[in-house]
Write a structure and sequence with these properties.
single chain; alpha/beta; Beta-carbonic Anhydrase, Chain A; 5-stranded mixed sheet; 5 strands; binds cobalt (II) ion
Length: about 220
């Protein structure tokens, strides 16, 4: 069967399996969402948030883009982040990168890809910040893997610099911000253990006060 038809068939089967032991599943789903998790992941088809974490519809609020980037002028990201943090009041924000990320790989060479080069530029900035460490890794695969991890680290850090996250920390000491990497070689998620839940370890220059300046 063609994929496009398989999808509709798959949906029918899914509805059936959901309601088999839980008749009210869709009634609850229609009443609203209260996910505890906000996921920022890569658009890559191999890393679907719900499937790789064995979670359900309603569990995870999701934003995906090329190479799971947190670009602080990206209105799409900022709007989703604001909704997740201030309306849904999520407890955790996860940046989940993945090894073999095409966006990260593209940032490692000097090929021109077109319009996406403007997006990839942000990933190249991560390389420049960690150039010493990355250039010291001789093995190309290991350097690629490490670049993926460092990119996640910088995106987690970029999240903590936003007024949205810092204001939430000021008012409710949440959310925790995590950095994970999905490994398509094993299917496993690696926790990079770079969780932030306050601005105490943040360089002073990025800290912002809880009140807006009165003018
Ligand atoms: Co990717």
């Amino acid at each position: 069967m063609e994929m496009i038809n398989r999808m509709i068939e798959g949906n029918r089967a899914w509805v059936e399996s959901k309601t088999k032991d839980d008749a009210d599943f869709f009634e609850r789903l229609s009443e609203g969402q209260s996910p505890e998790i906000f996921w920022i992941g890569c658009s890559d088809s191999r890393v679907p948030a719900n499937e790789v974490t064995n979670t359900e519809a309603g569990d995870i609020f999701v934003h995906r883009n090329i190479a799971n980037m947190v670009v602080h002028t990206d209105m799409n990201l900022l709007s989703v982040l604001d909704y997740a943090v201030n309306a849904l009041k999520v407890k955790h924000v996860i940046v989940c990168g993945h090894y073999y990320c095409g966006g990260v790989h593209a940032a490692m060479n000097s090929k021109q890809y077109g319009i996406v080069d403007n997006w990839i530029r942000h990933i190249k900035d991560v390389y420049r910040l960690h150039e010493k460490e990355l250039e010291a890794i001789q093995d190309e695969q290991k350097r690629f893997d490490r670049f993926v991890e460092l990119n996640v680290y910088e995106q987690v850090f970029d999240l903590t610099k936003t007024s949205i996250i810092q204001n939430a920390w000021h008012s409710r000491n949440e959310p925790k911000v995590h950095g994970w990497v999905f490994d398509p070689r094993t299917g496993k998620i690696v926790d990079l253990n770079i969780t932030f839940d306050s601005n105490t370890q943040m360089p002073k220059i990025y800290k912002i006060d809880s009140e807006i300046v009165k003018r």
